Amino acid sequence: xxxxxxxxxxxxxxxxxxxxxxxxxxxxxxxxxxxxxxxxxxxxxxxxxxxxxxxxxxxxxxxxxxxxxxxxxxxxxxxxxxxxxxxxxxxxxxxxxxxxxxxxxxxxxxxxxxxxxxxxxxxxxxxxxxxxxxxxxxxxxxxxxxxxxxxxxxxxxxxxxxxxxxxxxxxxxxxxxxxxxxxxxxxxxxxxxxxxxxxxxxxxxxxxxxxxxxxxxxxxxxxxxxxxxxxxxxxxxxxxxxxxxxxxxxxxxxxxxxxxxxxxxxxxxxxxxxxxxxxxxxxxxxxxxxxxxxxxxxxxxxxxxxxxxxxxxxxxxxxxxxxxxxxxxxxxxxxxxxxxxxxxxxxxxxxxxxxxxxxxxxxxxxxxxxxxxxxxxxxxxxxxxxxxxxxxxxxxxxxxxxxxxxxxxxxxxxxxxxxxxxxxxxxxxxxxxxxxxxxx
Length: 440
Description:
The protein has twelve helices and 14 strands. By secondary structure, the protein is α/β, with parallel strands linked by helices. The protein folds into two domains: about 45-245, SGNH hydrolase (Rossmann fold, 3-Layer(aba) Sandwich), CATH 3.40.50.1110; about 250-355 and about 425-440, Immunoglobulin-like, CATH 2.60.40. Strands 2-1-3-4-5 form a five-stranded parallel β-sheet, sandwiched between helices. It has a five-stranded antiparallel β-sheet with strand order 8-9-14-11-12. Strand 3, helix 5 and strand 4 (about 155-160) form a beta-alpha-beta unit. Helix 3 (about 65-80) crosses helix 9, helix 3 packs across helix 11 and helix 4 packs parallel to helix 5 (about 130-150). The longest helix has 29 residues, at about 395-420. The radius of gyration is 23 Å and the shape is globular. The protein starts with a helix and ends in a 6-residue tail after the last strand. The model is unreliable at about 1-35 (pLDDT under 50).
């Protein structure tokens, strides 16, 4: 319990980092595909749906409230009218056997419409492959899928993240065990007709590349002990899960084309006003989005090379065609975001990866509010859901526990309402002008 809240505090602390633009953030190049849909447009293939009541089930990695918080952050900022409810049923040291045993009381009793199941890290035993252990893992995972199907809840079955050989004792052995141990999950998902994300394969490919780029784990460190997440690892996992579940990439996109005698604005998932005065030297416009980008945290930046620069998850686009060949500053409400060349702007830049400005600040306040709300979720789960009264108090608990659960849930719902208020987009004035050193 103390470990959980310490980890929550770390996540909350990460949300208050100093603002600034990172020159290491690569703008979208002309060769990169543009996102084609926004979550608000209702991607039919996306696993999560508006009004979902979501339960994240798993072991200590789930109980850290990192990858689950970032999934929640994506859903909240991308669908600010989504009316989601988020609950976490992660317990340190748990396995599929434990999950199956508590599935009714900890998961189905919450009446979820969507469940993510993330077991297997502890089940594999952190050593050589164990055939009997794997048999239990498969049987108990199947039992959870069967219970979920009978209850009418959608399931996203996840293989766990691959351990990082660079800083996990016997990681070289266990990462290979994981591959064999989780192999049956894809077949189980097909049998029970549920969604499946091979998070192991995705994160294994990422950490293999990290080994080549950063063999001593000095910069890119997703897991502080080789398997539990630090905030960068939370992002790595959330990216793998969300993209695996077909999350739309687009936040919104504005394309300004400068022409003789005026300019034209083409938009997706936003509204633009007052963009007619653009010239080859830049201009201003007012942009009102239907969604917000996830606020890029500075300690996420080392993960960008291993998460496709978030172009497939957090594209907040700006394109300006027809500018004179110079460097330009982009600002929102007078706050500079960074310097871009005319070539970069003509190709399109992803402002979702900057770490400054009013849009970022709004998203960051949403993250902080989610962290505060999730402290209430954790208190309800560990203090009430998991409470088992002794025999001599069973009658009192039977009467009081449902009332306390509702009381705590009402507080969570109130906090969630405040989160959505913070996530409501507002108009902002964008300005593109020649960088100071280029001005006459």
